[in-house]
Design a protein that fits this description.
By secondary structure, this protein is α/β, with parallel strands linked by helices. Helix content is 49%, strand content 18%. The chain contains nine helices and nine strands.
């Protein structure tokens, strides 16, 4: 009996590491809620980890270096681009953001899923390089007045920056059709439930379960 239990435990462990991790991308105009949804998902699901971007923008109040971003100077950023150390990068409101390559590839090989809180430019670059690993979600606001209200409520930017973010929202919204999934963040709990359902479905895709063919052959052998 103990031997059978050990074999079952070993089989479960093999299945857990057999699946290559996936990259779950959340994008939205500023204020639509992608960062809030990202934080909720990381808290609720231990099987996914955040891709921590590098950025040249100043550190905000409450942010922690290495947790929210890796804050670096422009010279270091340019060097990472030149060496091919970033999977994607973009300039947003005068600052540069990018995804370090090695931590992501290491997590995917280990069967861990990686969450990306990035814009449409970064999503396009990731799709060009690793389309089979990506599931992308675009988060829409319920209305433009509500989008602006949220930007003011979070109190992270001054009025000039908020105006620039609102001006840019139209261009960002135009990229919704490039994503695999689109959700409307009207009620946060409902939007979060939709994100979790999408992640669960993506994990169960046949192409992400390479061990399943051997399992089916074992079933057939017993018929």
């Amino acid at each position: 009996m103990a031997r059978k239990a050990r074999k079952q435990k070993k089989a479960r462990k093999q299945k857990a590491i057999a699946r290559r991790g996936l990259m779950l991308v959340l994008s939205s105009p500023s204020g639509a809620g992608k960062t809030t949804l990202s934080r909720m998902l990381l808290k609720a699901d231990r099987k996914i980890e955040l891709s921590v971007s590098v950025t040249t923008r100043p550190q905000r109040r409450g942010e922690k270096n290495g947790r929210d971003y890796h804050f670096i100077d422009r010279a270091r950023f340019d060097a990472m681009v030149a060496k091919g150390e970033l999977m994607e990068w973009a300039e947003v409101f005068g600052y540069h953001y990018g995804t370090p390559r090695h931590p992501v590839e290491r997590a995917l090989r280990a069967g861990r899923d990686v969450l990306f809180d990035i814009d449409w430019q970064g999503t396009q670059q990731l799709s060009e390089k690793a389309r089979g690993d990506i599931a992308s979600i675009f988060v829409l606001p319920p209305s433009i007045p509500e989008l602006e209200r949220r930007l003011h409520t979070r109190a992270l930017d001054d009025k000039d920056v908020i105006r620039r973010r609102m001006d840019k929202a139209s261009g960002e919204l135009s990229h919704w059709a490039e994503y695999d999934y689109v959700i409307i963040n009207d009620a946060l709990d409902h939007a979060f439930a939709e994100v979790k359902m999408i992640l669960a479905a993506e994990r169960m895709k046949r192409t992400r379960q390479p061990w399943i063919s051997a399992y089916v052959r074992r079933l057939q052998a017993k018929l």
